[in-house]
Structure prediction request, 83 residues.
Amino acid sequence: MEARSMPPPTETQAKKNDFVWLSENLQRIDREYDGKWVAIANNSVAGADDDRQKAYDEALRKYPSERPLIYHARNKTTSVPRA
Prediction:
């Protein structure tokens, strides 16, 4: 019997996987990228910048077939609340 490879995940499943990955790594991302916009794609930090669009564009360059998630990292222990 011939082995079959798994089909690539659908965009919806890939997005869900990225949400799960983000939730599992949230504290580390908040700590390492405090104040930055972080683009998540392919279960990784694919871009990070002070500018949201730059973070998104960086992720698209790395993963052109993905639609990255965008998250604004905030280290809750060091961030000052906004008025």
Observations:
- DSSP finds two helices and three strands in the chain.
